[in-house]
Amino acid sequence: MLNTNTAKIGFIGYGNMAGATARGLMLSGAIKPEQIYACANDYDKLCRKAAADGIHPCKTSFEVVETCDVIFIGVKPYMVEGVMSPLKDVLHGKIIISLAANTYDDVLEEIMPSAHHVATAPNTPVSACEGIFICEEENTLTEEEKAFVHELLENLGLVLWMDRDHMGIGGVIAGCTPAFVAMFMEALGDAGCKHGLTRPVVYKLIAQMLAGTGKMALKSGDHPGQMKDAVCSPAGTTIVGVSTLEKNGFRFAVIDAIDQIQNKIHGKA
Ligand SMILES: NC(=O)C1=CN([C@@H]2O[C@H](COP(=O)(O)OP(=O)(O)OC[C@H]3O[C@@H](n4cnc5c(N)ncnc54)[C@H](O)[C@@H]3O)[C@@H](O)[C@H]2O)C=CC1
Ligand SMILES: O=C(O)[C@@H]1CCC=N1
């Protein structure tokens, strides 16, 4: 029976998302570095990252699969088939957690019918154990394996099981938008710098402001409009900024960005 104290966790591909997942699992204390094995395209680069993280670098994906009980797929979506198909014979009964965007259970089943697989849509804040793992409800895990996967991923933040129709947009809102937020942070940093704050101070203020606003929303359940109203004093300063953002199409720019991502996913762009 699988348990987090002894399970060996593998990563095929050890880039941004896989590394974030591994680091989150280690930071949470659920998984020790010596339980983690990874392979990647560039072995020397992998060895440097593995040494920094304290995990085992592997020369081949076969080594990862043969050694591990649970294997995360951390390669680009278009590579999943080419990387996983040659492993067909060694995947029997292994738990496979795919990180690949918009790559669902039907595709995984086609490529690796003998594995017990689940498709997910994660985000990089898992590295700080404040992330999201959306998992597809349709999967080939046993009930016991599903409970184990849920427990493992819960160490990294929120775990939500979703039907395929909502996985795409859920994955975009959870997985793509950390980049938007980082752009917002950078813009606020530039503005703070322009008006005299040093970079270390302004970025600290911004990060804490964002973490606090998110936590407040989760704790109170308040509507975002209510949270905005609570900051805007009548004839005060914030409302001047809010109206300037409206004039510049701030909210439409965000909705349009999501629309364009969806168009790309659905082949319309
Ligand atoms: N970066 C993100 O925020 C998110 C990424 N994802 C998904 O995670 C997956 C990985 O994306 P990133 O980490 O951003 O990409 P990345 O480019 O940082 O990492 C890709 C990794 O795959 C490895 N790789 C390439 N060819 C390989 C091969 N033949 N065998 C083994 N490893 C190989 C590379 O060496 C690298 O370690 C993608 O499928 C993406 O859709 C999902 C949600 C969020
Ligand atoms: O940009 C991408 O394709 C990946 C999927 C979600 C976030 N990053």
From TrEMBL:
Similarity field: Belongs to the pyrroline-5-carboxylate reductase family.
Binding site for NADP(+): I12, G13, Y14, G15, N16, M17
UniProt KW keywords: Amino-acid biosynthesis, Cytoplasm, NADP, Oxidoreductase, Proline biosynthesis
Residue stretches making up the Pyrroline-5-carboxylate reductase dimerisation domain: 166-264
Protein name per UniProt: Pyrroline-5-carboxylate reductase
Stretches assigned to the Pyrroline-5-carboxylate reductase catalytic N-terminal domain: 8-101
Compartmental location: Cytoplasm
InterPro entries xref list: 6-PGluconate_DH-like_C_sf (IPR008927), NAD(P)-bd_dom_sf (IPR036291), P5C_Rdtase_cat_N (IPR028939), P5CR_dimer (IPR029036), Pyrroline-COOH_reductase (IPR000304)
Enzyme nomenclature, EC number: 1.5.1.2
Pathway given in the UniProt record: Amino-acid biosynthesis; L-proline biosynthesis; L-proline from L-glutamate 5-semialdehyde: step 1/1
One BP annotation, GO: L-proline biosynthetic process
Reaction catalysis annotation: L-proline + NADP(+) = (S)-1-pyrroline-5-carboxylate + NADPH + 2 H(+); L-proline + NAD(+) = (S)-1-pyrroline-5-carboxylate + NADH + 2 H(+)
Any Gene Ontology CC annotation: cytoplasm
Role of this protein: Catalyzes the reduction of 1-pyrroline-5-carboxylate (PCA) to L-proline.
GO molecular function: pyrroline-5-carboxylate reductase activity
First-level EC class: oxidoreductase
